[in-house]
Write a structure and sequence with these properties.
Order of helices and strands: HEHHEHEHHEEHHEHEHE
Structural class: alpha/beta
Distance between the termini: 50 Å
């Protein structure tokens, strides 16, 4: 049996060829201002790492439509393009979007691993050409609480934190469901995405009040 690191190199590959209107600027417009802003975010994260060790980052927001999934995807792609071993997890088990964004819909993923409770390796995919791995959400779960609150899930995130330099989790928004709060307990830190002139201030405050403030390392102001 090979080592987990060796197994990672054997997972199926896929090509990242997004359309121009996908807003995956870290691929379609690497020299543009938006991609440069993502690289600036990475620089700030690295500065923070010098004072506070972390690898597993949750990307969430107060409501849907604020750009958290695009932020998570562009951040993960940019990290990998800097030769950082990166895993992107689609953690929205009710309304996943990253597989569609990457144009590989229908792939099994986290929920399917939960049903089989076996190795995570068969459910990982790697972008061809650079060190970015992707764990899709898999089949939709109506009640993900059992998965997210389980000991196997905590063990999985701990294992993945050892295999990768960065683990980026695209979480559901903070709202009436507990999914985002459950994810918070599985990661080291989190970033809150706020969309200018869209995010209601009261909802943002409610979001901040409901989360573990000690894990919030910053806000990402989107669409400015």
């Amino acid at each position: 049996v090979g080592s987990p690191a060796a197994e990672l190199e054997e997972v199926p590959k896929f090509e990242l060829r997004p359309s121009e209107d996908s807003r995956l600027v870290s691929v379609t417009d690497e020299s543009g201002m938006a991609a440069e802003k993502v690289r600036m975010l990475i620089t700030r994260l690295r500065h923070l790492q010098r004072r506070r060790a972390f690898r597993r980052i949750l990307i969430t927001s107060a409501v849907r439509g604020e750009g958290k999934s695009l932020t998570a995807a562009n951040l993960a792609i940019s990290l990998a393009r800097q030769n950082q071993r990166t895993l992107l997890i689609d953690g929205d088990l009710r309304q996943p979007s990253l597989s569609k964004l990457f144009e590989i819909p229908g792939e099994p993923g986290l929920s399917d691993w939960w049903r089989e409770k076996d190795s995570i390796m068969p459910f990982l995919r790697q972008v061809d050409g650079f060190p970015l791995w992707f764990l899709p959400a898999g089949g939709i779960l109506d009640q993900p609480d059992e998965l997210l609150q389980s000991a196997p899930m905590a063990q999985l995130l701990a294992q993945l934190g050892q295999l990768f330099e960065w683990v980026i989790v695209d979480s559901p928004p903070v709202g009436p469901i507990a999914d985002a709060a459950n994810w918070v307990s599985l990661v080291d830190v989190m970033l809150i995405v706020v969309r200018r002139s869209v995010t209601p201030k009261k909802l943002l405050q409610r979001c901040l009040d409901s989360l573990d403030r000690s894990k919030i390392i910053g806000l990402v102001l989107n669409d400015t």
